[in-house]
Amino acid sequence: LTSFTSLKDGASSNMIPMVIDEYKPSSIKNVINIHNHLRSAYDGHESQRGRPDQTVVKYKMESPVVLSGESSPNEAAIRERMILCIFTKFKDEEYTKQMNYLKNHEDDVHRFGRLLLNKAMNLSLDTVENYYQEAIKICGERFPARVKNNLACMYAGIALLQYAISEMEIDWEEITGLSPFDMLDIIMDTMQENLLDGRATNMSVIDETFEIMARMRLVDGEDYIVRTEEDGRTILYLRLKVVYDRFTQYKASHYISGEVLAKGEFERQLKRSSYYIGSNKNVWFPLLKDGFKCWMIDFDLLSERCDVSGFYDADRPKATQFGIPTEDD
Questions:
Q1: pLDDT tens for residues 13-33?
Q2: pLDDT at 244 over 60
Q3: pTM of this prediction?
Q4: What is the dihedral of CA 36, 41, 47, 52, to 10 degrees?
Q5: Whole-angstrom Cα distance, residue 36 to residue 289?
Q6: CA-CA distance, 233 to 231, in Å (whole number)?
Q7: Measured over all CA atoms, what is the biggest interatomic distance in the chain, rounded to whole angstroms?
Q8: 249 falls in which pLDDT band (50, 70, 90)?
C-alpha cells in the first residue's frame, strides 16, 4: 500500500469501505502509510498531488476503512479513531448455524441491504442528529471526545436498523433480546475494556514511556528512587538523563511499536503532564554516596494513568547487587 494508492482508494467513495486485510505491523514495511491513512480518513482530510502540467489534483478522504488482522494499532491517536470488533476463533454452533443461514439466503440479505439504504436516504438530518445526541447524553463524560463520537455514530446506525426492521412489522427486542440502549451499554463496556484497556482515556505517549520504563531492568537506588515524603506524597525521583537513551535502545531491541519522542520533546510534554512536579532537583542517592539531578514525578498520579508497578517489583535489581557499597559495608 503506497501513499498514492491509499489516497486514490480513500477518495473513491463515501460509502463503500476500503478494506485492508492481514494487518501485521511487524511484517509490513510501509505500515506508517497505513497509520497515516487511518488518521487522515477519520477527519476527512484533503490531500493534493501535482501533475506534470503543474495542475493539482485534490483527494478528499471520505471512504470508510476496515482494518482486519490479528493485531491492532497501539498508537493512542489511532485507537481513539477506531471501532474495535473482536471475533472469537472458537466455534459456536449457534453462530455457525446463523452464518450458514445468511450465506444460503444471499438474495434476502441483498434485499434487506436495499431496504436499509432506502430508509437511510429518506431519514431527515434532524432525526439522525437526535439519534446522535441521545447517545452523546448516555455516554456523558465517560470517554474521550473521539471515542464518544464513534459510539454515538454507532448508536445512530443501530437506531436506523431498528427503524428499518419496525417497518417490516418485526419486533426488535423480540428477535435481539435487547433494546438499542441496552446494546449501547454493552458496546460502551466492551470499548472501555478492549480499546482503552479498562481506563477512561487512552494512554498518552508519556504514559506509555513510563510504563515501558517500569518493565526495563532499571536499578533501584542507582537509576531512580521511589520515596514517600513527609507530606504523604509518593515521589519518583528519576535520573532521566541516563535512563532515556537506554529506554530508546530497549524499545528498539524488543520491537515495541509506538511513538518514540526525542528527549527534548519528551521533557517538554512531561512538564505539561498532571503528574510532573519538578526537574533538575539534586537528590542524594545513599547507596551511591552522591547526589544527582533528577526529575520529580507524582508516583500516585502516575500509577492512576498507567501500570508502573514494576518500579516496586521485589525482583528488580538493587544497587547493592552491583557491588555498590552500602552503609553496613
A1: 888 888 888 888 877 777 888
A2: yes
A3: 0.70
A4: 80
A5: 49
A6: 6
A7: 85
A8: very high
Distance CA 124, CA 131 (A): 11
78-88 pLDDT, tens digit per residue, is 888 888 888 77
Residue 284: all three cell numbers together: 542524594
Mean pLDDT lowest among 39-53, 68-82, 315-329: 315-329
Amino acid at position 98, single letter: Q
Cell 519522542 sits on residue: 261
**Cα separation, 299 vs 214, whole angstroms:** 12
**H-type alpha helices, the chain:** 3-10, 31-43, 76-79, 93-104, 106-122, 125-139, 145-167, 172-176, 180-190, 205-215, 240-253, 263-271, 299-305
- What is the structure's pLDDT at 295? 95
Would you tell me how many other CB atoms lie within 10 Å of the CB of residue 123? 15
Distances (CA, A) of 86 to 17, 22, 67, 72: 18, 15, 12, 10
What's the pLDDT score for residue 321?
43
Are the CB atoms for 271 and 263 separated by under 8 Å? Answer: no
**How far separated are the first and last CA of the chain, in Å rounded?**
62
CB 60 within 8 A of CB 14: no
Q: How many Cβ atoms are within 10 Å of 236's Cβ, its own excluded?
A: 24
Cα gap 193→14, rounded to integer Å: 30
For 49, other C-beta atoms within 10 Å of its C-beta total 13
Bridge partner list, 220: 224, 318
**What residue has cell string 432506502?**
118
The chain-wide mean pLDDT, for the chain, equals 85
Contact between 51 and 57 under an 8 Å Cβ cutoff? The reply is: yes
